[in-house]
Amino acid sequence: MLGPNIENFIGCDSTYEDAQIVLYGAPFDSTTSFRPGARFGPSAMRHESFGLETYSPYQDKDLTDCRIFDSGDMELCFGSAEAALSDIEARAERICSDGKFPLLLGGEHLVTLGAVRAVWKKYPDLQIIHFDAHADLRDDYLGAGLSHACVLRRCHDLLGDGRIHQFCIRSGDREEFCFAKEHTHMHPFGFEGLRETVAALREQKVPVYFTIDLDCLDPSVFPGTGTSEAGGVSFLELLDAIRTVCTADVVAADVNELAPMLDASGVSTATACKVLRELLLALHIKK
């Protein structure tokens, strides 16, 4: 059994044995291409979560009604992306094999690949819903195939064509957008088409991995991230989209790319905490 963490995300104090949902942090940002700092995101979210209430007036639900275990941050190798991904994969695989829902806190977006590898083993018909400012479909970034700029391309290597659904994308090189036209379902700039996508996935009864890069939010709302892109969605738009996605058969999820030290005001961390609370409660409603 995984042991208790010293500082939990607020309201997430179930035991591992009793939990439905297990949080696990991946404090890794060694392939960050612009401003580093996302490795400090998971611990900042835990610490600052105590500025929140456990109750959500958006959903009329409370984290104290949920069975959520926070296992804390993993100790990852900063010198090897593959070693870090292997450790993340092993942790996600353990949580899945115990019949629990793995919810990863990043870290840079590359950490998603480790979790997807594990979840895909259990659900070979897995599809991904991806919220992000960036396409993340480069085949390599400066010669490295394991980069936060390549994470969805590596996920495509596993899942194949037509099983990745991308929303809010507003940045990438020309090759990425050309690749998306042929191989993924990209919905640029916002959430147009999300309800239809979720309805189709629900009808098909396919398992869904839900990955949220917080830079899908506009930097006026969320400046504390490594690669900000103007033109993002609002906080309330994101909350509505999260509740929509969670009506599908979501079997695993992550929230990533908070770099708390890049926003001295603390607003970005507070926003990330509230996004995580609403995601946890939306998942609990589904279950």
Descriptive labels:
single chain; 287 residues; alpha/beta; Arginase, Chain A; 8-stranded parallel β-sheet; 18% strand; globular
How would you describe this structure to a colleague?
The chain is 34% helix and 18% strand. The mean pLDDT is 94. Helix 2 packs parallel to helix 3 and helix 7 packs parallel to helix 8. It contains eight helices and ten strands. The protein is globular. It has a single domain, classed as Arginase, Chain A (3-Layer(aba) Sandwich), CATH 3.40.800.10. The strands form two sheets. The protein has an eight-stranded parallel β-sheet with strand order 4-1-5-10-9-6-7-8, sandwiched between helices. The chain has a two-stranded antiparallel sheet with strand order 2-3. A hairpin with a 4-residue loop joins strand 2 and strand 3. With 287 residues, the chain is of the alpha/beta class.
What is the secondary structure topology, with strand pairs?
Layout: E1 21-26, H1 41-48, E2 55-56, E3 61-62, E4 68-73, H2 81-97, E5 101-106, H3 111-122, E6 127-131, H4 151-159, E7 164-169, H5 174-183, E8 185-188, H6 194-204, E9 207-213, H7 235-245, E10 249-256, H8 267-286
Parallel strand pairs: 1-4, 1-5, 5-10, 6-7, 6-9, 7-8, 9-10
Antiparallel strand pairs: 2-3
Helix pairs in contact: 1-8, 2-3, 3-4, 7-8
In short, what is this structure?
With 287 residues, this protein is an alpha/beta fold. It has helices spanning 41-48, 81-97, 111-122, 151-159, 174-183, 194-204, 235-245, 267-286, and strands at 21-26, 55-56, 61-62, 68-73, 101-106, 127-131, 164-169, 185-188, 207-213, 249-256.
